[in-house]
Amino acid sequence: xxxxASSAPPHSTYRERLLPGASLFVALVLVIPAVALVLTPINxxxxxxxxxxxxxxxxxxxLLSSPSIEVADGRLTAGRAEIPVSLLGDVExxxxxxxxxxxxxxxxxxxxxxxxxxxxxxxxxxxxxxxDPAPQWILTTRHPKKLAEAISAARVAA
Length: 158
Known about the structure:
Elements: E1 12-17, H1 22-28, H2 31-39, H3 44-64, E2 68-72, E3 75-78, E4 81-84, E5 88-94, H4 96-103, E6 112-114, E7 122-127, E8 136-140, H5 144-157
Parallel strand pairs: 6-8
Antiparallel strand pairs: 1-2, 2-3, 3-4, 5-7, 7-8
Helix pairs in contact: 2-3
């Protein structure tokens, strides 16, 4: 069976899932004794199993709700939003201080933001699409330089 170009999988030059770090899951373990403490007067034999179930639900929620950033087929996808790389301007790498300043007081409320509190660096990308109300995209990423390089490479390829 031959596969035509339209059914071929997209060629991804960059993909990152913004998963929480291990420390969040370690801290989340405190939910188990908290739930057990609340439920012990009601039903002691179900206190710890219920705490473990609540922990599992919370951990699964964090994992399944983690957004992705992807550069593929000439498009940048960040969470549910996407934009052609041809409509993106300069990419600025942001360290912890730069990210804090970019999203702090004075941040344009129209900017598209994809932020996760457990990631402390990111990128600010100018949006040159005159029809789009968001002047910039600010994204947290663990690999800002790789993301910027992927966007540049996708612009050249387009």
